[in-house]
# Entry
Amino acid sequence: MAATNDGVDMAEHCTACDRETPHAVRVQIQTESDEPENAAFSREPYRVSECQICGTTTSTRMNNA
# Structure
């Protein structure tokens, strides 16, 4: 999986810290199928956010087609 990070941190609510904390946010392409013949057709963009205080990571699918 390829991902880029432009080094920009954003403040978001962290459920583990239960407060606004700086987060590193990136877009990552993830394969959703376990079947090798379908893997090329099952890639979807996800928004991945990592709390810079506790390290908790959340991943949210960006398009719900």
The two ends are 21 Å apart (CA to CA). Strands lie at 9-14, 19-31, 43-51, 57-61. Residues 11 and 22 are 4 Å apart (CA to CA).
